[in-house]
Predict the 3D structure of the following.
Amino acid sequence: MKKIVSIACLFAAAALLAGCPKKATTVEPPVAGSQVPGAGGTSGTEGASTSTSPLGGDAGNVGGAQGAGPNASVGRIIYFDFDKSDIRPEFAAVIAGNAQYLTAHPNAKLKLEGNTDERGTREYNIGLGERRAQAVRRALMLQGASESQLTTVSFGAERPAAEGDDEAAWAKNRRVELVYGP
Amino acid sequence: MNKAFSVLVLLVCLGLAQRSSADFVVEVTRGQDNAIPIAIVPFAAAGAADLDVAQTVSNDLARSGRFKAMDRKDMVEQPHPGANISFDDWRRLGNDYIVVGLMAPQGADRYNISFELYNVLNHQRLLGFQISANRPGLRLASHQIADIIFDKITGIRGAFATRIAYVSVAGSLPNRSYRLIVADADGENPHVVMQSNEPLMSPAWSPDGQSLAYVSFEHRLPTVYVQQLKTGERHVVSAKAGVNQAPAWSPDGKKLALTLSTRDGNLDVYVLDLLTDALTRITDDPAIDTEPQWSRDGQSLYFTSDRAGGPQIYKVGLQPGDRPRRLTFQGNYNARPRVSPDESQLAFVTQEEGAYRIAVMDLKGRGDVQMLTKGQFDVSPSYAPNGAMIIYASRDRGRGVLALVTPDARVQERLVSSEGEVQEPAWSPF
């Protein structure tokens, strides 16, 4: 069973009752003498309401808490080719530097954030971003990082690093960011 | 453990009043040649109302592509009631149908709107209706009037009084804000359902139109929520380690199909029973399996998989042992299926000449595929509940916009928003 814990905001509810506009329309019988169309257009209109969607609570800015990590000479972003998740040779040093740090600091935790460019469908891109994050995870583990130090998340195309509908922007967006946390 | 919690989201009248200023302008990019000419005469005594009901009805009908609404400037008189219509004059002006109406105030805040629809050619009165609406209800009443007229003339149930949900992205990198918005089907009357500094995606309507499922990254991890629109109450339905994505309601509203991942990042499609929290794995393949969508009978799922290399669309029955069947074979990128309300057609995203476009596939016959759009980044198709229109996300001069196309590609329109990026439209049920 689900355990539902509701944090109700009473004053807000009271405010709603007191002042929010109600949007209700009713479809009544036709004007006298008219032809009555079946139920055409009348169903589901009683009290139909579109105006009551509340402002959702913003759960706040959960910023990526930057913990420790290797010194700044070790890169923390790995870029990828279009539709690819293999790590290009030029990023071997990034993998090695971070793997070294993780091996030397067994308590360090690293989050691998996978991203794609904007092309394609959003949910499939989540899959591609995850595939990239996993490629980095495997590479780090091969070089000594332990499984328990690493987590992955895919933002797909939802958190681009650069705006624009061209290859220059796309190349910056196809990436895995290495984020050290608490 | 699936410990769901719900938060009655801060529900302040100010919040309700905070209208998003994302007003839409409709541009008809391609119209229908044989649109039915109709005149919606301004309703008598409408001067006092804050909304021009007759114009809203006229805009709705024109937007459907099936009607050509007469410009008010060309009307030489504004008759009411129907007995005063000079049918021959209206016929000479090229109209097949005419609507006349009256807005009778009932107290300070309420109107009694009566209207009549006539066939101009044979003078026949096709219907007369009376709708009572309070001031904030005038817009909804207008859409209902358009629905009644549309239904009477075309025989197709109108979908003007429905809604769309979409995601609006504002601000420049890295300070973006994401808002989940619900608006009337014409883009007017937008209300913010949820906002966050982290991505919101994949809104999906419950079959009763009362709730939205969506993915929020507000904790920098994906979580699937279900939020009730009336109360703002929401709860977590999936926050497992790894991927929690692509929610899709079963036709009976009791289950959600969604995409989850194993520890090594393999995405598969699952079905979650919303009552018991029981989770059933539907696909089991090392490929990316995602973007599930239910068949009308609730017995199968359509989904995207790249098990054959590139993404293609498959269908799988939900009985144990059912094997996925591949549906798309043209081209190397076919993804994000959406089933038409009568399940005669599948809309999806396909790649053509390096562009992403909306295509439809015939599900009843030989599986013929037809391209519907011509943009560079046309994604996220969603059917109107009457199946007469598909809304999708497009790009216009580097900006995300919403666009509409009929499933036969004959009518194309763009909803141009005045601000921000607009993406992932989802059309509500009736």
Residues 138-154 of chain B form the longest helix (17 residues). The CA atoms of residues 34 and 66 of chain B lie 8 Å apart. Chain B touches chain A through 103 residues (CB under 8 Å).
